[in-house]
Design brief:
Strand order of the largest sheet: 3-2-4-5-6
Number of strands: 18
Number of domains: 4
CATH architecture of the largest domain: Alpha-Beta Complex
CATH class of the largest domain: Alpha Beta
Number of helices: 19
Shape: globular
Largest sheet: 5 strands, parallel
Length: 602
């Protein structure tokens, strides 16, 4: 008897087979690899060959970006005139790495450390992006030029406010363009601009910052090696879930090479604190280990204030502890650090913050589900078109994680808001069927600020508009999703015989690295695979270990996270969807399948 999986049913979406003419043209490639590349939108032999040889064929001249020439001229003017420049970042991993990257690039260009400063807004007190109070304070402190990284493209009123104060503002951002550009800016760099011919439209914020750094050093050559900053580009790009195709993939590959040959002290300390012991960094190490810890600084604020106090006390310094500032500065200091001892201190604090973040996410996720159930007592949560919860006890740095978990669990757009005294700050996470930022565009009249991507967005709203917001956004999403069958899908790259899974195939798959968004780890399906044994593992038995019989002389071990309910219910033969991985135990490395889903074979 097999378990009832009706509430967790997933649709297996099989990629269309390559056209016969392309199959013939790519006959020198392994057919499975060629099929996977075709699935990623790589549709010529030359493109496939370049991808496998790690050669990017596209143009990457930074001056192709609209606004780049004006930005470079203004920054070099600031250098020549010894003006005060502020790099205004964001508190997530993309924003922090962007901030660190530009400061290091400016120092390499010849700016003194007095003449260029970072500014990362306080997540709770200031919220996302530019704000008028911060710009006013920066002007009062003597700033002449403000350069945004990973924010600002929708800050029309704020940029105008800064211009009225006499600030020159350069916007560098990668988020979606709003109804109007902040035309009061001195320059606007965003490849998503309609008038921007730059080919890679999906650079992360740190990728755009890197292109600006390259343009500057082209115009004013120094002994500084701009490519040494590519480790920051890799971290920000992967952590921000930018698509790893074309130029982004090349940037991440080059960045991983920097990490594997010249690891900065902060990253060395952070990976040690996280107990990440690897012979070579992969994109997955950024996505699951490094990125979350850098993000934790911006998500969990009060612990960082205490971290500054404890660090101050450990150094036996007199006087007042460091002034409270934006919490993400801790992550920036870690990346800036050239002192191993100091880096170890910062890394320990970030690791502890990450643990706190995990605990908070679990607790607030339970609270969000309680609120949604209480609000809809007569409906199955899976019948709702949007999951909505607002509460005074939510943490603004955690709402995005909670929204993401709810979206994954129920396959519905989720909006979670932390209610303040006068304003609420929230995060939205959406499914592929719904562009959430376009939905928010229709509600701009009642939003203080908002921005993001098709799948994720943030917003700030006055509390008096909350009821109207919920009513209107629910109606919009109801209309957008009407008639759609909302079932989570598992894309399958190819159907293969289980006997094809061997070390040779795994070695070929490594040529697809770095994998991530838009270039995911390949997923296969095999039919009628014989089950030799299984057992439930994990503290609650939530996970499943299965040993599959390949043939009389070979077995394949596998792990299925969240599939523990199958233990004791597995038939003798199953159809299985999986990716191929390695597992090392007692210094012995073997192939392992990562099970995505199982169905009885008929």
């Amino acid at each position: 008897m097999t378990p009832d999986l009706s509430e967790n049913a997933k649709r297996w979406q099989f990629a269309p087979a390559m056209p016969a003419d392309l199959l013939q043209k790519t006959s020198s490639l392994h057919p499975i690899i060629a099929q996977i590349l075709y699935n990623r939108g790589i549709s010529t032999f030359d493109e496939m060959r370049s991808f496998l040889d790690s050669r990017y064929l596209g143009a990457d001249d930074p001056f192709m970006m609209a606004g780049m020439q004006s930005a470079v001229e203004r920054i070099l003017q600031a250098l020549d005139n010894e003006e005060l420049v502020v790099v205004y970042g964001d508190f997530d991993a993309d924003g922090v790495t962007s901030t660190v990257l530009l400061l290091e690039a400016f120092w390499g260009l010849g700016f003194s450390k007095r003449s260029v400063r970072p500014y990362i807004p306080h997540r709770i007190d200031e919220g996302y992006g530019l704000n008028k109070e911060a710009l006013t304070k920066l002007k009062q402190d003597g700033a002449d030029l403000v350069i945004t990284v990973d924010c600002g493209i929708r800050s029309v009123a704020e940029v105008q406010h800064g211009a009225d104060l006499g600030l020159d503002i350069i916007i560098t951002d990668h988020h979606s363009i709003g109804p109007e550009l902040p035309l009061a800016a001195t320059a606007i760099i965003n490849p998503k601009r309609e008038d921007c011919p730059y080919p890679e439209k999906m650079l992360a914020g740190v990728g755009i910052g890197y292109k600006l750094a390259c343009a500057l050093h082209t115009q004013r050559p120094t002994n500084f090696d701009v490519r040494s900053l590519l480790d920051l580009v890799a971290i920000g790009t992967v952590a921000d879930i930018a698509p790893l195709l074309t130029e982004n993939r090349q940037l991440v590959m080059d960045g991983l090479n920097v990490m594997n040959t010249n690891l900065r002290p902060g990253l060395m300390a952070l990976t040690a604190a996280a107990k990440l012991n690897t012979p070579a960094f992969l994109a997955s190490h950024i996505g699951f280990t490094i990125g979350p810890r850098i993000n934790a600084a911006g998500r969990i604020g009060p612990a960082v204030d205490m971290a500054a106090v404890r660090y101050h006390q450990k150094q036996n310094k007199g006087g007042t502890p460091p002034q409270k500032d934006g919490y993400a500065y801790l992550a920036a200091r870690l990346l800036f650090s050239r002192s191993h001892a100091q880096a170890i201190e910062y890394a320990a604090e970030l690791n502890e913050l990450n643990r706190t973040r995990q605990r908070l996410t679990e607790a607030l996720n339970r609270r969000a589900e309680e609120l949604i159930f209480a609000e809809n007592p007569d409906q199955n949560i899976g019948e709702l078109s949007v999951l909505f919860a607002a509460d005074h006890n939510f943490e603004p740095g955690i709402v995005g994680l909670v929204a993401g978990r709810l979206k994954e669990k129920y396959y519905r757009p989720a909006i979670i808001l932390e209610m303040g005294e006068e304003e609420s700050v929230g995060s939205c996470r959406s499914i592929p069927e719904l562009n959430i930022t376009r939905v928010l565009d229709q509600l701009s009249d009642i939003l203080v600020r908002y921005g993001g991507h098709a799948a994720a967005a943030g917003l700030t709203i006055r509390n008096e508009h909350l009821d109207s917001f919920k009513e209107r956004i629910t109606a919009i999403i109801d209309a957008e999703l009407e008639g759609m069958e909302l079932t989570p899908t598992i894309p399958v790259d190819a159907v293969i015989d289980i006997e094809q899974v061997d070390a040779a195939l795994y070695a070929l798959l490594q040529k697809l690295e770095p994998t991530g968004c838009a270039n995911p780890t390949p997923v296969f399906m095999s039919k009628r695979v014989e089950v030799q044994s299984s057992r439930a593992v994990g503290k609650k038995g939530d996970h499943l270990q299965v040993t599959f019989l390949v043939n009389e002389s070979r077995i394949l071990k596998s792990i299925g996270f969240g599939l523990g309910h199958w233990h004791g219910n597995l038939p003798n033969f199953v159809d299985v969807v999986y990716s191929i991985d390695e597992n090392t135990w007692n210094n012995v490395t073997t192939l392992q399948l990562q099970i995505k889903d199982i169905k009885p074979a008929f």
